[in-house]
Input
Amino acid sequence: MTIHDYILKYVDPNFIGELPFSVTTKSFSKNEVIINYGDIENQIYFLKSGIVQVSIAHHDEEKILDFFFTNHFFCSYTSLLKQTPSDVKLVALSNCEVEIIDHLEITQLHKTSLLTNQLGRVLNGKLYLRKVKREKEFLVKSAFERYNDLLKENPEFINQIPLNKIAKYLGILPESLSRIRKQIVS
Amino acid sequence: MTIHDYILKYVDPNFIGELPFSVTTKSFSKNEVIINYGDIENQIYFLKSGIVQVSIAHHDEEKILDFFFTNHFFCSYTSLLKQTPSDVKLVALSNCEVEIIDHLEITQLHKTSLLTNQLGRVLNGKLYLRKVKREKEFLVKSAFERYNDLLKENPEFINQIPLNKIAKYLGILPESLSRIRKQIVS
Output
């Protein structure tokens, strides 16, 4: 999927013509850092293919906040909106192809472009829904249920993520994840 | 603040004239349920004054997901967007004055109204930022630090919320919160 396809699917099924903003493309190799701690975010990325990890540092440990999969928008959001140094790191967990929108251009277009605002509204809403879902799941679901959901929702991706990273994302020890996986297989 | 003021402050400082959507007002008494579990959300609320609690049920226990304070938009967001029964309950923690926008009217306006989309983009973005902030704080800050932040950010409201609810929101026992409060006073 491209940003153009995303707009047809989620924003305006009758959209024809050119996008009001420019789009560039870029590739990241597996393990390449997209945004590091301290960087200022100036771009919005659409993941055409691949997996991206969002982590935050705490003392000497890295905690995993999120994974983004193919066909989703991502960026260091707080840094982008507030133009402050990023407190998260974005890393390509596999080879990634992205489309990139420039934040400065988009900010100008927000004053006049209906489509740009429609896209912003829809994608901010989707990001918020995902976060609320994750928060609720932490409160009311067991690690077993949360791992099962992850498997069901992203079957094609989950096998590409190292187990220790999945455990971190679920907030459990790698040994607990191994036990859960054995339970599921048996 | 009203929705009109919110638009002037966060969306378009040059906005003049009438809002493209209708706004009604309503009052809720302290402890009144705004949205219950199972309700379908059809409205977006702007909190002119008061405090609203968002909770989720888990077995026989209620977990507190969020508090909304004066000058913020709120609703049962997942229910609104997906038109599914709400899995959260919204309760007025104090007497509340709200302005209400109708979801159906807004959905129609999303097709054509620049201002309505600008407002949606901005408020979805703000909701997402808040959630990301809370998630990060859970991972990297102690309960002491999180309580201190809550005090600093909402000094005028926090004294109106019962301590057992604040403890639930922070994910700690009421006794731990009492210890933290003693530390701060001393």
Observations:
- Residues 23 and 101 of chain A are 5 Å apart (CA to CA).
